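With this grant's support, the team has encoded backbone shapes as discrete tokens. A representative record is reproduced below.
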Amino acid sequence: MGRTGTTRRRALLATGAAAAAALTGCSSGTPAGPRTAGTTAAPAEAARALRRRLAARSTALLGEYDAVTARHPALTARLAPLRAAVAEHAAALSGTRATPPPASAPASPRPSATGAAPATAPAVAGGSVPDDPAAALRTLAAAERRVSAEHTASLMDAEPELARLLASVAAAGSAHAYLLTKGDAR
């Protein structure tokens, strides 16, 4: 008997197709015009600043995963693959290699890549993880959506290589949000 509705496989296929479409659009080879990556005279410095800001956002999201698993240890196994992917995203954006801790390691919130709290400090990392595990997952899904939207909004300011990475990370974040809520009504 076949399934009806949206399945995880269909959601991931749709996300992959969206990422491929975004990547194709970003690699056209002809410049779309001048970048507006900031007021810095050196484009390389502006690109580094953008990378640092985006890596800090992904690192803050990693802290949100840690806060949820610290508050709800029963969710650790379910969140481990998504947390590992977020760790890889943060590492890719910062230009380092990530080695996520084992799923059984105690989780603790991590500071941002800059050592300071991010400008958009998430409520979960601030210590207000909901008592209900389902509500905590919904809050984490909202954080995934927010970071995904921030990465998508930064596409126009990014150099082509970074734009391709951002499109992929944003698509993965959207898939994570779906998987965290399993399509619950928002």
